[in-house]
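Message: A physicist's question: would you kindly supply an amino acid chain plus fold tokens?
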Amino acid sequence: MKAKVTAGFATATVGLLIDLTTIGASETAAAVRIGSAGLIVIGILLATAGMMQLRRAVDRARRGARRGLAMQSLGLIGLLFAALALQISSSIPVLFVSAALVVIAGSLAIVGGFQLGKHYSDIGAPSGTDAGYLVLGTALIFLGAGVIIGSEIGYHFVLSDVLSTVVNDAGVAVSACGCVVAAYASFVIRDSSRGINLW
């Protein structure tokens, strides 16, 4: 289960890195763009599925941990919808809807991360610091997504094409770093409190 979370964030990282190397390159093959988007979607879905399976494995009495995992999962799904909306259209209304989704989903996921930090032993984290890495990773993922959407909005109003591409690059890089941190956090967490290996 935790392996799914780790693999999901790692897969999303690869997709983001491919996307980062192709931003602004007009000659990039459509298959590469579709492939990078597919890796990101698969990564988010895999991480979400892993978190939901982990939630089901946590004892029902440990409500804080279960709530935190559910909020993290819902936040990632919200991020996926925001990204898909952005891919469908780059019109101003859709951009603002995507931005709102990122803010709401990000808030939900970060609060969920703090919930997990308070109940770190319930998910098998050796310490609150290890659960804190998950909060940091989540925050970076959503911060990067916000920067990406901000660059698209800015392009319609004040940013030049080149500057918009640079800001977009920065957003993708921040999200990729967040995925790496989140993958690390889920990798080091073990279910020591219950004596069950959830891998």
